[in-house]
TrEMBL record:
The keyword Lipid metabolism does not apply. The gene is Wdr37. PANTHER family: WD REPEAT-CONTAINING PROTEIN 37, WD40 REPEAT PROTEIN 12, 37. This is WD repeat-containing protein 37. It comes from Platysteira castanea. Residues 1-36, 238-272 are annotated as: Disordered.
Length: 495
């Protein structure tokens, strides 16, 4: 009778393990329906105020989680068996090697080192396989890290844009479809100034880098530059907005939305006319921003062009053409004469005004739907968001492909980057606001429930890194802006 070789024996053992593994999975799958039916019968016998549809959905979700853990448990058992087999094989090899070349101590060290490397590799693989489940439970810890601090209610229609002043006193600005722009006290939530100079939807608001001057873009085909004077009120104690527990995804009707009627915005000081009106576009002006220094401003329009203006004379300096469809956003570099414009043509463009005689343009192609915004970050990076449900991080020195891609479950609106900590805030059509780092790792999701967070599409986000109370602001089509306190050290530690 032929003697079975060592390699054949090991191959047969591996085959038997695979067979037993497949049988265990088959048994698990065959019992899923019976277990689901049993659990459903148990629930039906209990008193509950939840609708049956909600209970069935919860049951299905818990069943999916249980199946995930079962599969991971089986995989873990297999990995443990492999580790034990490797340990036995290494120990056997250590006994058969001739001791004339290596001492027992050297053999033990060698075997221990190899086993340690293999164990570490298996642990890394196991950790990667469980990362999906771990990330699904991150929202429970992020509630303590991301807290709602203040709601700013007073607009009579959806809010398209939110911005924070760069000069003292630091105020919050909102641009709304109700044809007004409002300035708010961040601490008290009181409206300080109302601007009513536009006759169309106010689509964007940006503050001058050194003066108490604001720049607004409107559906009336103009951009206005107007001056404001504010005096901050004394902060008053506010009720705690963070008593809501859980993450209930409850849809609210229109009657649940804040009503601007009777709000404090009706009796705040009003600015009715601009210092300067920028008029050169033939369509809706969707966004505007200041170039570094504040002596020039750039606007983006649905007429497929972006315009560069001299602020003092209101004269058109350059008309930036090249996009094939309507523009959606424009952003300027904080320290250099650079501009990015995004468009419905699925691209965004970089315009360089550092040399007055050369206005070079670079086209970034990588999205498959409307690019809703593109913003500068530290160094030579740009982050773009799109209706194709992705966010991409680009290196200005390499236009061919992004250095990181974030995939989401909903269209992404106007994004903003916390420059100091390199954190991206993503507002979504589905009312979510998520935080990611520049490498594409998800950090947290802002709380959202029937009594906390936005009730409609979130349109824009803005960071205010130095503010002690609120360091992130969001606005949406539920007619309110929200101030959040993000515990950034704890957030990065969770990462």
């Amino acid at each position: 009778m032929p003697i079975e070789s060592g390699s054949c024996a090991s191959a047969r053992q591996a085959k038997q393990k695979r067979k037993s593994h497949s049988l265990s999975i088959r048994r698990t799958n065959s019992s899923e329906q019976e277990r689901a039916g049993l659990q459903r019968d148990m629930l039906e016998g209990q008193d509950s105020k939840l609708p049956s549809a909600v209970r069935n959905t919860l049951l299905e979700l818990f069943g999916q989680i249980e199946r995930e853990f079962e599969n991971l448990y089986i995989e873990n058992l297999e990995l443990r068996r492999e580790v034990d087999t490797l340990n036995e094989r290494l120990a056997g090899e250590g006994q058969t090697i001739d001791g004339a070349e290596l001492s027992k101590g050297q053999l033990k060290t060698k075997a221990s080192h190899s086993t340690s490397q293999l164990s570490q590799k298996l642990k890394t693989t196991y950790k990667a396989s469980t990362s999906k489940i771990v990330s699904s439970f991150k929202t429970t810890t992020s509630r303590a890290i991301c807290q709602l601090v203040k709601e700013y209610v007073g607009h009579r229609d959806g809010i398209w844009d939110v911005s924070v002043a760069k000069t003292q006193p630091v105020v919050l600005g909102t641009a709304s479809a109700d044809h007004t722009a409002l300035l708010w006290s961040i601490e008290t939530g009181k409206c300080l100034v109302k601007y009513v100079g536009h006759v169309g939807s106010v689509n964007s608001i940006k503050f001058h880098p050194t003066e108490q001057v604001a720049l607004t873009a409107s559906g009336d085909q103009t951009a206005h530059i107007w001056r404001y004077i504010v005096q901050l009120p004394t902060p008053q104690p506010t009720a705690d907005c963070n008593q809501v527990s859980g993450e209930d995804e409850v849809e609210c009707s229109d009657k649940d939305e804040p009503d601007g009627d009777g709000d404090g915005s009706s009796d705040c000081p009003t600015v009715r006319a601009p210092l300067t009106s920028l008029k050169s576009h033939q369509g809706v002006v969707i966004a505007a921003d200041w170039l570094v220094g504040g002596k020039q401003a750039v606007t983006a329009s649905w007429d497929r062009t972006a315009n560069l203006y001299d602020v003092e004379t209101s004269e058109l300096v350059h008309s930036l053409t090249g996009h094939d469809q309507e523009l959606t956003h424009c952003c300027t570099h904080p320290t250099q004469r650079l501009v990015v414009t995004s468009s419905r043509d699925t691209t965004f463009r970089l315009w360089d005004f550092r040399d007055p005689s050369i206005h070079s343009v670079n086209v970034f192609q990588g999205h498959t739907d409307t690019v809703t915004s593109a913003v500068f970050t530290v160094g030579d990076n740009v982050v773009s968001g799109s209706d194709d449900r992705t966010v991409k991080v680009w290196d200005l020195k390499n236009m061919r492909s992004p250095i990181a891609t974030i995939r989401t479950d909903s269209a992404v609106n106007r994004i903003n980057v916390c420059v100091g900590q390199r954190i991206i805030a993503l507002p979504h059509d589905n009312r979510q606001v998520r935080l990611f780092d520049m490498s594409g790792v998800r950090l947290a999701r802002l709380p959202r429930s029937n009594r906390q967070g936005h009730r409609r599409m979130v349109c824009c986000s803005a960071w205010c890194e130095d503010h002690p109370i609120c360091n992130l602001f969001t606005c949406g089509f539920d007619r309110q802006a929200i101030g959040w306190n993000i515990n950034i050290p704890a957030l990065l530690q969770e990462k």
